[in-house]
Specification:
There is one protein chain. It contains 1 helix and no strands. By secondary structure, it is mainly alpha-helical. The chain has one helix spanning about 5-100.
């Protein structure tokens, strides 16, 4: 240790101190970036949650529409069957009337 002078030690300490300051500055920048990323992540999480809620709502609406559409189709189908029966009855009545007229 006798080979290193006090002046050399001071220079080495100053260099190390300067490097420590640089590392602290870099670390501060990284911490800032991490905070920004966390804020962005929180925002994205909120958006994803909102999208999930919207999708659930749309899914429910579509299921309701599907059920209503099936019911409407069943009603139309029933009305069509009744109409066809009435049409058949009308044809039979017309046929009977034709025979009565002749």
């Amino acid at each position: 240790m006798a080979d290193i002078s006090n002046e050399d030690l001071l220079v080495a300490i100053k260099e190390l101190s300067s490097e420590v300051k640089e590392v602290k500055t870099d670390l501060s920048g990284v911490k800032t970036e991490v905070k920004e990323i966390k804020a962005d992540l929180t925002s994205v999480k909120a958006e994803v949650k909102e999208i999930k809620t919207d999708l659930t709502s749309v899914k429910t609406e579509m299921q309701t529409m599907k059920t209503e559409l099936k019911q409407d189709i069943q009603k139309i189908d029933h009305k069509l069957k009744v109409f066809i029966e009435d049409l058949g009855d009308a044809r039979a009545d017309i046929s009977i009337l034709k025979h009565e007229i002749n």
